[in-house]
Design goal:
The protein is an alpha/beta fold and about 350 residues long. The chain is built from twelve helices and 13 strands. Helix content is about 40%, strand content about 15%.
Length: about 350
């Protein structure tokens, strides 16, 4: 934990009931709330403010030892009977939706399990990428429609809102994750399942996979699935998928930009490993910086994007890993990454 101690600081918010743990880097501000679940209530500021707008921070090396206790509290609050299977090896976290009886429906329990798994131990620099897949012949069939049916109970619309709010939280956690999140698709991905694929940073799918947003056929238009869909494919393609509900093939999905690549059914794991290996060969901090900026600039006009990009790349050159990469290239050797946001000493 010593190597992280100079990166961790505490801040007191306006709400005196909260303390937040902040992990600083050039583009992000990550908070953990101690009032509620310390992992699930984290939010990410995609920080565009200048240094004078950032509050003063105190040296918190003496607080670094508290991270394990936060993590332990997270583990202790996990419910039994999880609907996902979680494993992590050599920097790759694999999350498998493991409820094939419901075609891996994104029920509240399933989505909460996915949020738990995606959000776990972001401060661990050994984590390099996250892979989400589905057990059985279907990647995910989308929301559990039983959770959307009205039964006449009091305040049940609040519960319906909770379903979609949890889904939105899951999608935002994928974007907020400091490492690439990869969808490994081997089968149909429909409705919110298609949304999950569209929201992942990278998506690989087999030839037998298909994608659709057929909610209107069941009386519930795929409004929120359309959010990442419309940001991934051309507008006319998104409209066709949303208004007709008809599925598209993996080949079509790749040509439209919904997925990154189509692979043979028996080569999916091999291709996933190759993508993860490429990511792991690079500096985690550089990838994290790049991911943050990538999503930030998508929401900006061209001039603002270039202005921010200029700042980001300039600051990137100050990073030790930035200069190590340049030195490795010049000396024709593999870089020795630190995987942190340390800056080189100025002359």
């Amino acid at each position: 934990m010593d190597k992280l101690s100079n990166k961790l600081v505490w801040r007191e918010c306006n709400d005196a009931d909260h303390l937040f743990l902040k992990k600083q880097n050039p583009l992000t501000t990550t908070y953990m709330s101690s009032k509620h679940n310390p992992i699930l209530n984290m939010t990410v500021e995609q920080n565009m403010v200048r240094s004078h707008q950032v509050a003063s921070w105190h040296n918190a090396s003496q607080l670094a030892h508290q991270i394990p206790r936060i993590t332990n509290r997270f583990y202790s609050c996990q419910k039994t009977g999880k609907l996902t299977k979680l494993s992590e090896d050599n920097g790759v976290r694999k999350i498998v939706m493991a409820n094939p009886k419901t075609r891996n429906a994104l029920s509240v329990d399933m989505m909460e399990d996915l949020i738990d798994d995606v959000s776990l131990n972001w401060c661990d620099t050994n984590l390099r990428c996250i892979v989400i897949s589905g057990e059985g012949p279907v990647f995910s069939s989308g929301h559990n429609l039983k959770e959307l049916a009205l039964t006449g109970e009091k305040d049940e619309l609040a519960e319906k809102r909770r379903v979609f709010s949890i889904c939105a939280q899951l999608m935002k956690r994928i974007v907020a994750a400091p490492v690439p999140v990869i969808a490994s698709v081997n089968g149909p991905a429909f409705a919110a399942g298609c949304q999950l694929v569209a929201q992942c940073d990278i998506a690989l799918a087999t030839h037998s996979s298909s994608f659709a947003t057929p909610g209107s056929h069941f009386g519930i238009f795929c409004s929120t699935p359309g959010i990442p869909l419309a940001r991934a494919v051309p507008r006319k393609v998104a409209a066709h998928m949303l208004f007709t509900g008809k599925p598209i093939t993996a080949e079509q999905a790749a040509s439209y930009g919904l997925i990154s690549k189509v692979v043979a059914d028996d080569k999916l794991d091999e291709e996933i490993e190759a993508v993860c290996a490429s990511i792991k060969s690079q500096s985690r901090s550089i990838i994290e910086l790049g991911k943050r900026f990538f999503y930030q600039q998508l929401e900006l006009d061209l001039n603002s994007a270039y202005q921010l990009g200029t700042d980001v790349m300039t600051n990137n050159t100050k990073m030790a890993d930035g200069q190590e990469g340049i030195a490795g290239f010049a000396q024709k050797r593999k870089p020795v990454w630190k995987h942190n946001f340390d800056e080189i000493s100025s002359a």
